[in-house]
Here is the input.
Amino acid sequence: MNVSADLPSQDTANLNSTQSSGGFGPASPTIPTHPVAVILPVYRGVEMTRHCILAAMPNILAIPGARIIAINDASPDMGMQEMLDQFAAQWPDVFVTIQNEKNLGFVGSVNRGFAYFPQHDAVLLNSDVIVPREWLGRLIDEAYSRPDIGTVTPFSNNATICSFPNFLQENVQSFNLDVDSIDAVFRKGKLPCVEAPTGVGFCMYIRRACLDVIGNFNEEKFGRGYGEENDLCQRALKSGWLNIISPNIYAYHEGGVSFSSDKQALVDRAMRVIGDLHPNYLRDVQLFIKKDPLKSARITRYAQLLSALPIPKVLHISHAMGGGTAQHIDELAKYLGQRVAHIFLNTHGRDGAICISFGMVQHADKLLFALPSEYADLINLLKAIGVSAVHFHHTHGLDSIILRLPTDLGVAHLLTVHDFYWLGANPTLTDENWKYPGFYSDTQRNPLYPLPQGMTIANWQAQLRPLIESADCVIFPSNAAKTLFENVYHPSNAVVAPHIEAHLAINKPPSVFSKKDHYIIGALGEVSRQKGADVLDQVARQAKKMGLPFKFQLIGYAYRVLDAVEITGPYKSNELADLIQRHGLDIIYFPAQCPETYSYTLSYALDSGLPIIAPSIGAFPERLSGRQNVLLIDHLSPAIELLNQISMFIEKLSTGVLITAPIFEGDKSRHDFYACDYIPIVSRDLKIISSNETAPIESISAVVLRGLKKENFSLRVTLVHFLYRLYKHPSMAWIGRALPDSVRHKVVGTFGVGIVNDISKKFKGK
Here is the structure.
C-alpha cells in the first residue's frame, strides 16, 4: 500500500481514539514506499565512530537499496576523514561520505543528508550509538506497521523517555552486557509500540512521506542542535503522523559527545524556542511522563533480561520507612554491583499492599500487589524472573504470607537483623519508661509497640521461628544483637558481619584533642525519646544551670523542642561528615536509651576522629573496643551523674590523658562476609537459562499489567501522612509542646507511621 505525500489515509475517529489511548488500534502493515538512508553526522571520537559504523553496516548491507551517508562536520580529530574514506572505498555502492567546510552542527549536517537522499526514508544515527543485529530491518518493520507512522525511536540506555531500565535516566549498560545481549530479550515476543509527543534523535527512523509533508529540520530556529527533533516530531503530529517508541529494539547510546561543554545552554535555548513554536509541547511531554505508557514494556523487558542472566537474583524484603535499614540495602546493592541483580519488596500504604521495585533510584519502576489476594501473581512474577534467594531485612507492616516466599519459590533465604522487632514487635527493647532495662524479657512491653491484635508473644515467636531458625544465614551487625536474639531463637547459620561502609574511614585514629575555653558537644541524627532526646535535654539544662563551658548541639532533629540544645534540622546522610566539621563539634555524644544493632551515626562519629561518649549497651562497646578518647557510660544514670562523667572526661582529655575504651572480649566480626560468603549463598538455587530461553513474555506481561495499579489512598489517609511528616519537621516543634506527653509520645515513636495506619483504619471504618 502506497502512502501519498498528503495526510495518511486514516479514519479520523480511529486516529483520535488511538492517539488518546497512547496505544494502537487495529491497523494493517504497509509495504515500504521508499528505500532508506542512514544519516550519520560525525564530529568527535574516531574509534567510537568506527564502532558505530561497524555495528550498523551488516544490516545496511543486507537491505536492498539501503545507504549510509557519513557527514564530517569539520571534525577536529586527526584521522576522522581518513577512516570515513576507507569505509567509502570498502563499500562504494552503499557508503557515502561528505565534508562540511565549516562546522554546521547536527541540524545543518542532517539537512545535508536529507537533501543528498531526497527519495529515501531517513534514519538519524548519532556516532556514539551502537545498534544491535538486524536493527534497520526491524525499524523498517515498525515504521510500516501502520500507514500513519511518521517516526520510530527504539529503547536505549540513555534516551530520556525511551531509557531502559530506568525511566528518564542516563543508565549504564545493564549488568555490563553488550548491546546484542540486551537486545536479545527485545526480540523475544512483540510488545505494542507506544505513541509519544516526540521521538529521540539518537536513533530515529523518519518516513519520507512524512518529511515531504513537514519539511526538514529548522536550521533558523535551532542552530547547531538540541530540540530540532522535538520540533520535527511536533510538526509531524500536527500533520496527522504518529511518533512511536518501539519496545522491540534496543540500542546503546553513550550520549553528550558532540555538545558536552555547552549542552545545558543549548538545551535551555531549545526549550524556549519549542515553547514558542509549540505551546502545548511541554504540557504534552509532562502528561506523557506522568502517564508513562512505556512502563509495562520496560518492566516486562527487564524481567525477561533478569530471567536470562547467569547471576544471582536477590529479593530484598523490608518496610518502607527508610532509615538505617534502607541505607544498608542500598549500600549492599552498590557494593555487590552488577555481580548480583536486586529486586526490592517493601510495604506500600495499608491493608497489606506491597511494592516490587526494580531499583533504588528515583525513577525505578514499581509494581503493586495486594496481599494475600494477589500472592499468586507475586509468586509467578518472581519465578519468571528466576529469583535465587530471598533476603529479609524487616517484616514490619507486611502480611504474614510473605514469610512463605522462600518455601514457595524453593530458594535460599537470609535475614539481616537491623533492630529487635522480631523478638516481640518492639524494635527498641525499651519499656514503658522509654528505657532499655539492660536485658530482654518476654514480659517487657512498651505500649507504643503492641503485638498485633489477638497475638500473644508465644504465637509471635512461633510464627517467626521457622523463618529465623531455618535460614541459610542470619546476619547480625554486632555480637550484642546476636546475644539478645539467641535468648529467644536458635539460628543454625548465624554470622556477625558489620555493615558495608566503604565511603567512611571508621578505623581512623582519633584526632588530637585541644584545650579550649568552651566545648561544643554534639549529638547526631533523628533523636526520638528512646534515642535519648529527653536525656540530652536534661544534661544540657544541667550544664547551663551550673555554668559549665559546654554548648550542646544536635545535628539533626528531635521528637520535641529541646530548649537547652541548638538544633540544626534534617540533613541527608552524605552531608553529615561536612556538617560535623562545619559546626565545629569537639565531642560527639550518643544519649541513646535503647541498644543499637549497629548505628550508622556512630560510623560518622568514628570517621570524624572526634572523642566519643556513648552508652555501654548494644553495639557501642563492641564497635568502640580499645579505641582512645572514648567514654562509655551507664545510660540509666541520672542527668547530674552523666554530666559529671562528661566533665571529668573532657578535663582529662584537655590535659593530655589518654582514655581508652575497654577491649571487647566477644567473637570477632566477619569483615569478609560480604566479600567471600554472600554470593555463594544467594547463588545456591540459581537457575541459569540462556537469552534464547527467557521466561514467556505472555506470562510476564500479564502479571505486569495487573501490577500496574494507581495508588488508591483516600484523600484523608494521604492527609494523615502529610500531617505526620509535617509534625516531625523541626519548624513545627511548637506543636509538640502543646500536646500532652501521652499523645506526643504515641505520635512520634520510631515507628510513628503506625499511628497513621491506626488512623487510616478508623477513617475506613467511618
In short: The longest strand covers residues 242-253. The chain has four domains: 29-293, 306-496, 519-654, 715-765.
